[in-house]
Amino acid sequence: MADNVVLVGFMGAGKSSVGRILARRLGRCFVETDEMITAAEGRPIPEIFVERGEAHFRALEDEAVRLLALKRGDVIATGGGLPCRDGLPEALRAIGTVVWLSGEFAPLYERALRGGDRPMLHGRTREQALALYESRKPFYAQADVTVDTTTLNPDQVAAKVAAALAERRRQAV
Ligand code: S3P
Predict the structure, then answer these.
(1) pLDDT tens digits, 91-132
(2) DSSP per residue over the chain, as a string?
(3) Does 81 sit in the ligand 1 pocket, CB within 6 Å?
(4) Which of 6, 34, 149 is the best mutation target for the ligand 1 pocket, counting ligand atoms within 8 Å of the beta carbon and taking the most?
(5) Ligand 1 atom nearest residue 116's Cα
(6) Is-above-0.85 flag for pTM?
(7) In whole numbers, what is the pLDDT of the chain averaged over residues?
């Protein structure tokens, strides 16, 4: 086991902010699949969606997952849709301990709308975004650990994740 920590969850769950805090706390490197893709393609994700479409973006995510298999001991934040296809939850669990930053739809959606340009919310009504959230939950739920982020700030979530990981290590001994 490569001992990475892999954060998954819907847009707005705080994967990037929590990941950064957690990595600092654990003295690990922080990696984001969205950053890997942006760097490899040389353009931002909204542009990739517009110019090449979602299917191409998902193929780039698959390639990122293959590269993640080389990582050791990192904290990895994934894009919100990355684990949500057949075979991906298993592929992530082979890379490290998968942590689902879960939460109620409304606060996640509000945060996702406020922060940054998210192509998956373009042209989707609130009801359609809710349907996307519901359809993704069974994939996120295959994580090793679930941390409910509702009402917590990123520092508090990172502390909860660190405690859950420590507890898992204790139980494994
Ligand atoms: C996506 C989420 C985004 C990014 C891309 C697609 C999705 O990441 O990977 O826009 O399908 O939910 P965040 O979860 O960090 O917003």
Answers:
(1) 999 999 999 999 999 999 999 999 889 999 999 999 999 999
(2) ---EEEEE-STTS-HHHHHHHHHHHHT--EEEHHHHHHHHHTS-HHHHHHHHHHHHHHHHHHHHHHHHTT--S-EEEPPTTTT-STTHHHHHHHHEEEEEEE--HHHHHHHHHHSS--GGGTT--HHHHHHHHHHHHHHHTTSSEEEE-TT--HHHHHHHHHHHHHHHHHHH-
(3) yes
(4) 34
(5) 16
(6) yes
(7) 96
